């Protein structure tokens, strides 16, 4: 195979060897075109049948779509070509022929359902709009990392195979670990707290979480990417400031650096980064506003968790991102600290996008005795969590943090219908491979 010297964005005047996939062949009789595609775009290869070597013409025009070819020749300006240039080939080699029966059409002309697309991700990712989602995902993760560094955080990696889950319960995937029962971790919660209690103080992690969700929904995965923060000497308000900074940084990066990708997704006109401050509604205000919308069959009362319908009603009412703060203690986990002057109220908060929950966070219970009490109230055996609780006896500072769903962030930024579109190889109740 001849080595590639240029990509599909080659300029007129260059003598090139390009390599890529056969996107399309258009045979107009005396003249025919092969459109070659690579990660940078597409370039037209021109075949003038009477003036070119017969073998070259035959190889170039008989090759099946999506085969990998290399083409050598001169690049010339051609205003009628899709990208304004074309190559007159001197040689063409079929490097990897594609079966003419493709399970899906990478040109996007024929729609495929999501399941077929996920079964054939390699072909699916040859579509411009699908590739754009994952280029944007990569940019969002870069922006999030940079923003955490601005906030003086250290990136950490915590174990995913654990002896106890963060909150126990039916959401845990059990595994066998050298004959012992273990679990896939459902959140880095306990580990990040243990590190925030060291001199490292401020940490973040971007890593997988595993949850055996009871139902298939468009916003739950069984393996998701969690963007976590934990900071010593922070309270819930500081943690909300960090959330807001990170979410806005993600939007701004997409706005600034992903123009081509937004265009491929047809989003370039409507896209904008939020510039208003995210309002902070108390749980009490939230349920009052939900009740006032009259969207629900039954009025909410203090202590109720917010159903999907309730979240939607409030999301429409507010119209942008917003925080819900001061949740009832009893519906937040044991590690969330209660308000000192009102133990029924917690410091827990959620960040909501109008479509769904993006973040849960709060100030943490850092006092050993209160923490043990919290375990017992939640029906968990504190002895099983001794590796965690004992560190609260050796100088645990007040601290706060949050977990942000990475795929939910991507999904809401891009308006994707289904969270599976934001993951290369999603895991759900029906899907374990590829
Ligand atoms: P939900 O109420 O939507 O089930 P949660 O309250 O159970 O979410 P948390 O434990 O608060 O989730 O986790 C923090 C964040 O992680 C959530 O706000 C969400 O963005 C994300 N997340 C949680 N579970 C999933 C999942 N199964 N798939 C994708 N993202 C998830
Ligand atoms: Mg959940
Ligand atoms: Mg929730
Ligand atoms: Mg939550």
TrEMBL record:
Predominant subcellular localization, coarse grouping: cytoplasm
Domain of life where this protein originates: Archaea
Protein residues bound to Mg(2+) 2: 357, 360
EC number: 6.1.1.23
UniProt cofactor note: Binds 3 Mg(2+) cations per subunit. The strongest magnesium site (Mg1) is bound to the beta- and gamma-phosphates of ATP and four water molecules complete its coordination sphere.
A molecular function GO annotation: aspartate-tRNA(Asn) ligase activity
Name of the protein in question: Aspartate--tRNA(Asp/Asn) ligase
Source species: Natrinema halophilum
Source lineage: Archaea, Methanobacteriati, Methanobacteriota, Stenosarchaea group, Halobacteria
Gene coding for it: aspS
């Amino acid at each position: 195979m001849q080595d590639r010297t240029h990509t599909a964005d080659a300029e007129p005047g260059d003598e090139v060897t390009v390599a890529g996939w056969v996107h399309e062949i258009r045979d107009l009789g005396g003249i025919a075109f092969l459109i070659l595609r690579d990660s940078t775009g597409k370039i037209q290869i021109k075949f003038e049948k009477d003036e070119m070597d017969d073998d070259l013409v035959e190889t170039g025009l008989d090759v099946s779509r999506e085969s990998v070819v290399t083409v050598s020749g001169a690049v010339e300006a051609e205003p009628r070509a899709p990208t304004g240039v074309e190559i007159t080939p001197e040689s063409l080699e079929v490097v990897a022929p594609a079966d003419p029966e493709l399970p899906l059409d990478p040109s996007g002309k024929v729609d495929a359902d999501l399941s077929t697309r996920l079964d054939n991700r390699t072909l699916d990712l040859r579509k411009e709009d699908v590739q754009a989602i994952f280029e944007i995902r990569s940019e969002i993760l870069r922006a999030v990392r940079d923003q955490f560094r601005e906030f003086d955080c250290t990136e950490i990696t915590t174990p995913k195979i654990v002896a106890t889950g963060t909150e126990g319960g039916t959401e845990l995937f059990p595994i066998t670990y050298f004959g012992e029962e273990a679990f896939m971790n459902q959140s880095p919660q306990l580990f990040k707290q243990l590190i925030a209690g060291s001199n490292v103080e401020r940490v973040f992690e971007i890593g997988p979480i595993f949850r055996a969700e009871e139902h298939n929904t468009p916003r739950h995965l069984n393996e998701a990417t969690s963007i976590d923060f934990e900071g010593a000497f922070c309270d819930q308000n500081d943690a909300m400031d960090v959330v807001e900074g990170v979410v806005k940084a993600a939007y701004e990066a997409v706005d600034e650096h992903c123009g081509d990708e937004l265009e491929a997704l047809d989003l370039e006109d409507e896209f904008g980064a939020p510039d208003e401050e995210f309002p902070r509604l108390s749980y009490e205000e939230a349920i009052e506003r939900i009740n006032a919308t009259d969207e629900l069959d039954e009025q909410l009362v203090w202590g109720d968790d917010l159903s999907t319908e309730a979240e939607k009603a409030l999301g429409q009412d507010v119209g942008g991102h917003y925080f819900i703060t001061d949740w009832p203690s009893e519906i937040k986990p044991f590690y969330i600290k209660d308000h000192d002057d009102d133990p029924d109220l917690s410091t827990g908060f959620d960040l909501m996008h109008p479509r769904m929950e993006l973040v849960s966070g709060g100030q943490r219970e850092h006092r050993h005795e209160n923490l043990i009490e919290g375990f017992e109230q939640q029906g968990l055996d504190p002895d099983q969590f001794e590796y965690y609780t004992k560190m609260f006896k050796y100088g645990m500072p007040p601290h706060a943090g949050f977990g942000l769903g990475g795929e939910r962030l991507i999904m809401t930024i891009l308006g994707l219908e289904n969270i599976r579109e934001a993951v290369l190889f999603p895991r759900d109740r029906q899907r374990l491979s590829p």
